From TrEMBL:
<dbReference type="GO" id="GO:0008270">
    <property type="term" value="F:zinc ion binding"/>
</dbReference>
<keyword id="KW-0479">Metal-binding</keyword>
<dbReference type="GO" id="GO:0005737">
    <property type="term" value="C:cytoplasm"/>
</dbReference>
<comment type="similarity">
    <text>Belongs to the zinc-containing alcohol dehydrogenase family.</text>
</comment>
<feature type="domain" description="Alcohol dehydrogenase-like N-terminal">
    <location>
        <begin position="28"/>
        <end position="154"/>
    </location>
</feature>
<dbReference type="Pfam" id="PF08240">
    <property type="entry name" value="ADH_N"/>
</dbReference>
<dbReference type="InterPro" id="IPR036291">
    <property type="entry name" value="NAD(P)-bd_dom_sf"/>
</dbReference>
<dbReference type="InterPro" id="IPR013154">
    <property type="entry name" value="ADH-like_N"/>
</dbReference>
<keyword id="KW-0560">Oxidoreductase</keyword>
<dbReference type="InterPro" id="IPR011032">
    <property type="entry name" value="GroES-like_sf"/>
</dbReference>
<dbReference type="GO" id="GO:0004022">
    <property type="term" value="F:alcohol dehydrogenase (NAD+) activity"/>
</dbReference>
<keyword id="KW-0862">Zinc</keyword>
<dbReference type="InterPro" id="IPR002328">
    <property type="entry name" value="ADH_Zn_CS"/>
</dbReference>
<protein>
    <submittedName>
        <fullName>Zinc-dependent alcohol dehydrogenase family protein</fullName>
    </submittedName>
</protein>
<dbReference type="InterPro" id="IPR014187">
    <property type="entry name" value="ADH_Zn_typ-2"/>
</dbReference>
Length: 363
């Protein structure tokens, strides 16, 4: 058993991450220690590093798309559930050494605030997020709360599973919200086949496109203007149409999901949706949204955001993808090259998702 491990930590904002050797941590009550096999690189990591969110305590280890093996299990405490109506699975899986798990952005919730009690733990007043409030997965080992880990099948390649933990999950939550908002005023059913616009065709959109197409919907992929490779990629995955984010789609969309952190896309997407349609902003941060005329919001169009995830989202999502042959496209990087992976993400020079593999070393 190793006594120290390598972590890549953020020590000051807008600066390169720093490689450090740290003592391997021990799991506390209801926690597990995980030997990390892969950790996806999410746009949120870039926002944290750039100081675009409320500033985290430093140093912090980024990364919240973690896949690894349970390596040690902490003592189990007698947890009293705050609310008897909470689902029985609220305590999470009973984990054993050797189990493969995934650790998402949602690291802990209080279980007691108004949001937790109404099954909106994604909005918990005291939520702790992985790789933001507590150390994440740009490391060889990490600690997680057992109840917030998801089981990841042994048959899955860890590098391909990693992007599912945030890009996949958040995309899926946005997709469900979009579908929910399209039901009529009295809850009438949505159309069997929807026209869904995905703005920003990266890690989240390339996973969601496969799920939506499998569900019988049409995907319209919007990329950075001139990104022919991105548009080609979307078509390979079955998109009905792919074009520049500034383009008008051939038919009005039922919903537009925004994965690019670009505020000017909000009015653009509002102009692309039909009456009663919705624009869902799926990122944690976005540049300022320019003023727009009321006429493009009129006729019951909506704009809303998606924040974080609930454990139930994760359970639904992993059940769902067990029935769909989702193929995640990944580019792997050794831990030391996390900054390069982040810059590639920023510039849009990635096909699919970037994933760090801590076991790999640079030559
Ligand atoms: Zn709470
Ligand atoms: Zn993320």
């Amino acid at each position: 058993m190793k006594r120290t491990h390598r972590v890549l930590q953020l020590e000051s904002y807008r600066s390169p991450l720093v490689l450090r050797e740290r003592r391997v941590p021990d799991p506390g009550p209801d926690q597990v220690r995980i030997r990390i096999e892969a950790c996806g690189v999410c746009r949120t990591d870039l926002h944290v590093r750039d100081g675009e969110l409320d500033e985290a305590r430093l140093p912090i280890v980024l990364g919240h798309e973690i896949v690894g093996r349970v390596d040690a299990v902490g003592p189990v405490s007698e947890r009293t559930m705050p609310d008897a109506s909470q689902p029985a699975d609220d305590t999470g899986p009973a984990l054993r050494v050797g189990d493969r798990v995934g650790v998402p952005w949602l690291g802990w919730t209080c279980g007691a605030c108004a949001f937790c009690r109404r099954d909106e733990e994604n909005l918990c007043d005291r939520a702790v997020f992985t790789g933001y409030h507590r150390d994440g997965g740009y490391a060889e080992y990490t600690i997680a709360e057992s109840a917030y880990c998801f089981p990841v099948p042994d048959t899955m390649d860890p590098t391909h599973a990693a992007p599912l933990l945030c890009a996949g999950l958040i995309g899926y939550r946005a997709y469900r919200l979009a579908r929910h908002s399209l039901r009529g005023f009295d809850g009438a059913g949505e159309a069997p086949s929807l026209r869904l616009g995905l703005y920003g065709f990266g890690a989240a959109a390339h996973i969601l496109a496969q799920v939506a197409i499998h569900d019988g919907h049409e995907v319209y992929a919007f990329t950075r203007p001139g990104d022919g490779a991105g548009q080609e990629f979307a078509k390979e995955l079955g998109a009905a149409w792919a074009g520049d984010s500034t383009a008008t789609p051939p038919s009005p969309l039922d919903a537009a999901l925004l994965f690019a952190p670009v505020g000017s896309l909000v009015p653009t997407a509002l102009r692309a949706i039909r009456k009663g349609g919705s624009v869902i902003c799926a990122g944690i941060h976005m540049s300022e949204i320019p003023a727009f005329p009321y006429a493009i919001l009129w006729e019951e169009r909506t704009v809303r955001s998606v924040a974080n995830l609930t454990r139930r989202d994760g359970t639904h999502f992993f059940e769902k993808i067990a029935t769909i042959p989702v193929r995640t496209e990944v580019e792997t990087f050794p831990l030391e090259q996390a900054d390069e992976a982040l810059e590639r993400l920023r510039s849009g020079a990635l096909r699919g998702a970037a994933v760090l593999v801590p076991g790999r070393t640079t030559d």
